[in-house]
Amino acid sequence: DLVKSHLMYAVREEVEVLKEQIKELIEKNSQLEQENTLLKTLASPEQLAQFQAQLQTGSPPSSSQSQGTTQQPAQPASQGSGPSA
């Protein structure tokens, strides 16, 4: 009985941790979707065409996305803060 109650307690703890992680991941996903939408609106047609071409040529999404996300956020951040300032 003691083992069973200890196990149930441990499972409940793990469930709470997982619920919190799910909540954080949902929030992060939402933020990333908003950032993605913003980047799409700020990207020039040439940048979008280049990105589409990379996707169609079968480039690994991780490398093309990591390059795009490292280059693009720097540009929109400076562009976004410039006009608002």
TrEMBL record:
Which GO BP terms apply? negative regulation of apoptotic process; positive regulation of cell population proliferation; regulation of transcription by RNA polymerase II
Task: List the biased-composition ranges (Low complexity).
Answer: 56-85
| Gene3D superfamilies listed in its UniProt record | Single helix bin (1.20.5.490)
State whether keyword Iron applies: no
* Record keyword Coiled coil present: yes
Q: Which InterPro entries match?
A: TSC22/Bun
The organism's superkingdom is given as: Eukaryota
Segment Disordered: which positions? 50-85
Q: Which UniProt keywords apply?
A: Coiled coil
Which intervals of the chain form a coiled coil? Answer: 8-42
Task: Name any one Pfam family assigned in the record.
Answer: TSC22
Q: What family is reported?
A: Belongs to the TSC-22/Dip/Bun family.
Family matches, as PANTHER family: TSC22 DOMAIN FAMILY PROTEIN 1
Protein name, as recorded: TSC22 domain family protein 1
**What organism does the UniProt record list as the source?**
Calidris pygmaea
